[in-house]
Amino acid sequence: MIPSLKGVILFGAENASLFYQKENFVSGRDIYYIDIRHLSEKACLFLVSCLDTLTDKYSYSYGLFPDLLKKEKIKLPVDVHGNPDWDYMEKYIEKIKEKIDHTEERLSQEKKILKQDIVKRKKSKNS
């Protein structure tokens, strides 16, 4: 099998899942993609979150096919000229990633503290 393009948004007709595919992939039946290779990964992630708002309308019996997706409309931030503001979208995703990284770091520190506390309690219990 020949791998498909990387850097695209994939979606399945049967479950209307959308996600950014940053690596080459091999897919099965009824998997489609939106070619957005000209956009940055962060802009694509923002776009996926906007497109994801459409998925409730589609189900296994009423799948999301490319012709239906083309008829859909989503709202995007725009610049002063009315064009999609890709820079804003990238910065927005960057801020979210920073918050996630900060939260993961904080949780990791809390986990270490809890482990130390458990070890201390076990030692004091065995003494």
Rg, nearest Å: 21 Å
Instruction: Indicate the structural class.
Output: mainly alpha
Largest beta-sheet characterization: 3 strands, antiparallel
* Envelope shape: elongated
Give the helix level as a range of percent. 40-55%
Question: Can you give a write-up of this model?
Answer:
- The protein is mainly alpha-helical and about 130 residues long.
- The chain has helices spanning about 40-50, 65-70, 85-125, and strands spanning about 10, 20, 30-35.
- Helix 1 (about 40-50) crosses helix 3.
- It is elongated and about 70 Å long.
Detail the topology: elements first, then pairings:
Elements: E1 8-12, E2 18-21, E3 31-35, H1 41-51, H2 66-71, H3 86-126
Helix pairs in contact: 1-3
Compact summary:
With 127 residues, the protein is mainly α. The protein is built from 3 helices and 3 strands. A 3-stranded antiparallel beta sheet has the order 2-1-3.
Features:
mainly alpha; 46% helix; three-stranded antiparallel beta sheet; single chain; 127 residues
